[in-house]
Amino acid sequence: MRYSRFTAPIKKGRRQEPNQLSVIIPAAGTGRRMKSYGPKCLLQSKGDLCIIEQIVDNVANVYPLSDIIVVVGFEADKVIQSLSASVRIIENQLYNETNIVESIRLALNNVITDSVIIIYGDLIFNPEAIHNIADDSSCAIVDSKNRFKNEEIGVTIVDNKITNFAYGLDTKWAQIIFLTGKELEIFRQLCFDRKRNKMYPFEIFNIMIDHGGVIQAKEPVNMQIREVDSLKDLS
What we know:
Structural class: alpha/beta
Strand content: 25-35%
Strand order of the largest sheet: 5-4-1-6-11-8-12-10-9
Shape: globular
Number of domains: 1
């Protein structure tokens, strides 16, 4: 085989129950738009923490029993060094030839729980942004208060359900989604279809909805969140 992938197994002594939660954090990209000359997720976020450390810290505080999986790629060794031993690492060695769907697919290959939160690895947010989102049915975090830039993916919402993900919509998808039950199964099948490996997650979400998946829209009241696209986003 041309490529080998590094995958950290489930930690010894850590019992995984079928109904526990996995949190997938794709952080394999090069961050070209940032011109940071290094992984975007390693930029300083808060105090002594970089972005990826802050994400993991928030997840661990809100969901202490979750299985946290970080997918690395560009300068993987540097990112791995920033992560605690409690985090599982998956390496996407094809990060320069694939998009985020491949990173998610690799992570799903190693998920043994029946519920998953996907959190993009270039977000800065407070714990309230993910609090209680895994309590019930599949849902996506949305932003109606201009916390995300106009060019980001938006959503159409009818009766509190997302009916479409697309560009040019006022309410934005906040790049965090919780999938469980039917929706997770459909999403998994679509990601594993190699014919779709050039698609983006929002395109797969739309196909999932067309196949009968239901995604609730949630906007936590005290949420603070932003995507890091430039150095000014860190201030």
